[in-house]
Amino acid sequence: MTRRVADSLRNGKHLLVQAGTGTGKSLAYLIPALHHAVSTGKPVLVSTATLALQAQIMGRDLPRLLESIQDELPRPAQIALVKGRSNYLCKQKLAGGFPDDDEDQEALFAAAVEPTGGVTTYEPTSKLGKEVVMLREWADTTDTGDRDDLPSGVTDKAWRQVSVNAVDCLGRKCSMFEECFSELARKDAQEADLVITNHAMLAIDAFEGLDVLPEHAAVIIDEAHELTDRVTSAVTVQLSAQMIQAAASSARRYTAINVDGLQAAAVAVEAAFGGVEDGLLARGLNEQQANAVESARNAARTALADSKPSGDADADPGRTNARSRLQAVFDVTERMLSSSHTTDVVWVSRPGTFTPGQGYQQADVTEPPLLFVAPTSVAGRLGEGLFGTRTVVLTSATLTIGESFDPVAGSLGLLGAGAPQWDGVDVGSPFDYPRQGMLYVAKHLPAPSMKSQDAQREELAGLIEASGGAALALFSSRRAAEQAAEDLRKTLDVPILCQGDSTMSALVREFAEDEQTCLFGTMSLWQGVDVPGRSCRLVAIDRIPFPRPDDPLNNARSQEVAKAGGNGFMQVAATHAAIRLSQGAGRLIRTTEDRGVLAILDSRLANARYGSFLKKSMPNFWATANGDVARHALTRLRDS
Predict the structure, then answer these.
(1) Where are the domains of the chain?
(2) I need a surface site. Which of 70, 71, 94, 593 has the fewest CB within 10 A?
């Protein structure tokens, strides 16, 4: 693999590399990438789908590699890491520059006046308040402001108190731009030989016209099976009446312009979409909906024109933030109105709510809707914006379907007239899967549903108990992971961590350090998590990871395949599931010494016709449908 990557970087021909778990693919591409960058002076970008793999490369793979090969390089290599803005502390927000977004201070802190001097201080009154205090203290000592560098993790809600997203960021108009952690990271990247980033940043850089990454002649894309979905997510936008109202309120407060048009448009949008059920707008916008969206676009355009800064107002952070929100409304409404002439589709969605003990319930149709716009395919954008301007190496454990690279290549824009040339190679895996791992399919369980959850949880509890912990439980949704963790914490004596309790890197580190600890999570843990040894001897998957049946984007893709005469279910849903099953199964065996059980708690893998297709994507573990056999194997592993 190292030789093939080196050849690709040297001759400029794109390369797809399927490399099974345990190949050492990170080292296999980092070595030629470093050599190429240092020797030619042309930076190489490495993009991952997950923060977990990003942390692994920066925290483990690169330090060891550089220590080993530094004498072989013509000069020392410079490395940089670039993430999205929301991963860094925002000094402007810490200084009180975003009053609209501040949490109610009374909910976080209790005011206390010191006896001498009458100075008012604030003491945290809740877990959230204590976390915010810790973050503010850390802000005074950290050199990076990177959330993953926190000595101990914090909740997502606490982190939002000290960070901003790309829309709310003031950019160059910020008074703290020169000392901004995010900007300092990007400045370091300008001087680096190797830049580590993620697929979302790559998409924004390639397709949105924003120079968020340094110039580079080559990019290596790890977890490449996720590229199309991550790019799609990066270019998906949303609109709501609340978003329009927030833009209007911000504009009125910081620019003093007339926002009656925006407020009327927010009412019109809510009226036009308020009674619409969740799902794809298969026929596009009706007349009332189109008129409402058009009124929002026109009002946002007028407000942008009326709020143009002059003189000292140009440096006002409030005005800058307000105009950023107005621009976001204009951009999404313009795109919605153009969707009938593009590959974009529009759908309506309302978030569900989680109640402890009752799980998730879908929000009522009377709840305010969110409107989403996304492309059904990004192949054209990738073919032009990514592969047309640099050398690209893509690698993953799952790049072939039925031993062919063509399905993945087609989704990347690498097939058809005028497509760039590329090579594909499968370098295999060093593991003896039938001897090292067992595949247990719980054939006796009812097909997954709300009614079957108790039986599934009981099965999972028995497996974890037999294993004595050391379980990575992978779920097809965040809600399923959280509810399972809540339920099993009451019945099991082993520690159970759940995605969202802390940063991903902190959770994985805690899971790896204690072989009784279990980790429950969803898609971010299905890949990029490398925990070898006894800390992970059971990987359990709750259900075949098909797209949700009400997933509007996948429904639109299936409809397009069906119109072209294909099988929408197999080409979209089953292929999606096959790739993710393979990734989840790959968490179990990480070295030649590892042993463990992969438990699939979805009987459809054994009973449905498509089961054999899905199994072909997974490692060829020794298979059984006997739960006693699986539990005895786990007990032996626990006691060995």
Answers:
(1) 1-78+192-230+378-426, 89-174, 237-368, 433-639
(2) 71
- Provide the residue type at 410 as one letter: G
Angle at 381 between CA 377 and CA 384, to 5 degrees: 145
| DSSP code per residue over 556-605 | HHHHHHHHTTS-HIIIIIIHHHHHHHHHHHTTT--STT--EEEEE--THH
Q: Cβ contacts of residue 43 below 8 Å, gap of 6+?
A: 37, 192, 193, 194, 195, 214, 215, 216, 217
Domain 1-78+192-230+378-426 and domain 433-639, same fold? Reply is: yes
For residue range 241-254, what is the model confidence (pLDDT) as tens digits?
Answer: 999 999 999 999 98
Q: List residues bridging with 221 in a β-sheet.
A: 47, 394
Farthest-apart Cα atoms in the chain, separation = 81
State how far the Cα of 218 lies from the Cα of 351, in Å rounded to an integer: 39
Pick the CATH number of 433-639 from 3.40.50.720, 3.30.1490.190, 3.40.50.300, 3.40.50.10140: 3.40.50.300
The pTM for the full model equals 0.78
Q: Can you read off the two tokens belonging to residue 214?
A: 């340094």
Helix (H), strand (E) counts: the chain? 27, 22
Beta strands in 477-516 (DSSP E): 496-498
Q: Find, among 434, 433, 515, 507, the residue nearest to 470 by Cα.
A: 515
**Which residue's entry shows tokens 């996720």?**
226
- pLDDT, one tens digit per residue, over 471-506 is 999 998 888 899 999 999 999 999 999 998 888 888
CATH class, 1-78+192-230+378-426 region: alpha beta
